[in-house]
Design a protein that fits this description.
With 69 residues, the chain is an alpha+beta fold. It has one helix and five strands, in the order βββαββ. The strands form two sheets. The protein has a three-stranded mixed sheet with strand order 1-3-2. The model has no long low-confidence stretch (mean pLDDT 95).
């Protein structure tokens, strides 16, 4: 997925097969990463604890793991 921190509003979109997340949190001290995980969890109707950032802690392209039930 591609992440844009510091956006005007939080949103999840799908563009040409790529998940795009925009979060209002700034890209500092992990705030944007946490906002991404919270937003994605809400969009997937899953608890935040089920999501883990696997790759891309300091990049715009991120890989997130989702725990199975």
């Amino acid at each position: 997925m591609r992440v844009t921190p510091g956006a005007r509003r939080d949103e999840v979109t799908l563009d040409d097969g790529t998940v795009q997340l925009r979060v209002t949190a700034p890209p500092a001290d992990g705030a944007a990463n946490e906002a991404v995980l919270r937003l994605l969890a809400a969009a997937l109707d899953r608890p935040r604890r089920d999501l883990t950032l696997l790759r891309g802690a300091t990049a715009r392209i991120k890989l997130v793991g989702i725990a199975s039930d």
